[in-house]
Amino acid sequence: MNIQSLISEFHSRYGAGDELTQVFFAPGRVNLIGEHTDYNGGKVFPMAIDAGTYLVIRKNSNQKINFASENFSFKAELDLANIDKLDDGVWVNYPLGILNEFKLRRKSFSGFDALYSGNIPAAAGLSSSASIEMVTAFALNQVFKADFDTMNLVQLCKKSENDFIGVNCGIMDMFAVGFGKANNAIALNCENLNFDYAPLEMNHLKFVVSNSNKKRGLADSKYNERVSECEEAVKVIGKVRKINNLSELSLKDFREVEHLFSDPVIKKRAYHVVSENYRVDESLKALKENNLVLFGKLMNASHISLRDHYEVTGMELDALVDAANRCEGVVGSRMTGAGFGGCTISLVETDKLDNFYESVTSEYHKKTGLNPVFYVFKASNGVREIEIA
Ligand code: GLA
What we know:
This protein is α+β, with helices and mostly antiparallel strands and 389 residues long. The chain has helices spanning 3-14, 93-104, 128-143, 150-165, 172-179, 219-237, 251-257, 264-288, 292-308, 314-325, 353-368; strands at 22-31, 43-44, 46-59, 64-69, 76-79, 112-118, 184-189, 195-199, 205-211, 330-336, 343-349, 373-375, 384-386. It has 11 helices and 13 strands.
């Protein structure tokens, strides 16, 4: 990203001003393993990526809030006194949700001008929305001296996504965007928010993200449906054992209560969550012992569970994972993020990458008529201010 030209664009849109112009950046994220566990108090293992959202921001003196983006033609000029939600699907709702959270916490702000520019592929499940939310929250915190720490900002962004946007997501995305660290993934327990950084020493392997280019239609409502199904499973188990969330169960505990489920769908959902937490634990051990072959096997098992028990993959993601697994040099492959479209992540031998790109593209295209796009991201630092020279 050329920061100077982004700042020039800001000035040509909003003119010169007396107040300080500042630039902030928040990355996106990709999850290595631990899917649909975060809102169940479970374990996840994401990393922040070297693609994200830039925000140029400056206070103004006219009591207006201006939002514009280089990525979307829609822009908004709002009165300070009226920051209600706009129509569903409009990107400005993400920063508006954050302003709303600041207001609910009695943090004051004046008018400001904001220009966003992002390079995360949209609707690919790489957390472009959490990136917009976190960059906004972090910037407002600095510009208006709101005195939140990173954990507060992460929690505030999750609240906004749940209450303002209406997606009942867990905390993984904002957390990875907030706490990312170069060359490391984050082993996070979503129940108590304890976390550890895990260095990614990959030797001769690379994590390759493949975008299915399948649009994630209806994803939000399907996502919320899964959240409710897990709540239902907690209630079923509650007949014999009080638990707050499914992640309190080990695989052995699950075997002891599985007879309680009369609905096979709810039982499958619960089994996915319990077994996925187990896979995260095993993956972390495998990584510590530098056993990447085992890590790859656990990725494969995660995908199968997301396909058969959680039912969030769909034809395109399955085709992409199958195509990857047929390539020489692939150690493991799975869907990543919410599913219903978006991306897969594969662990691939570096010297087999060209062959991987070629054969996955051709097989996937044959099956779906779509062309995948590939990215090799670097594990990166979290949200931050960018010094302007
Ligand atoms: C989306 C949500 C996350 C998480 C994943 C699935 O990315 O925003 O909170 O639930 O799906 O693991």
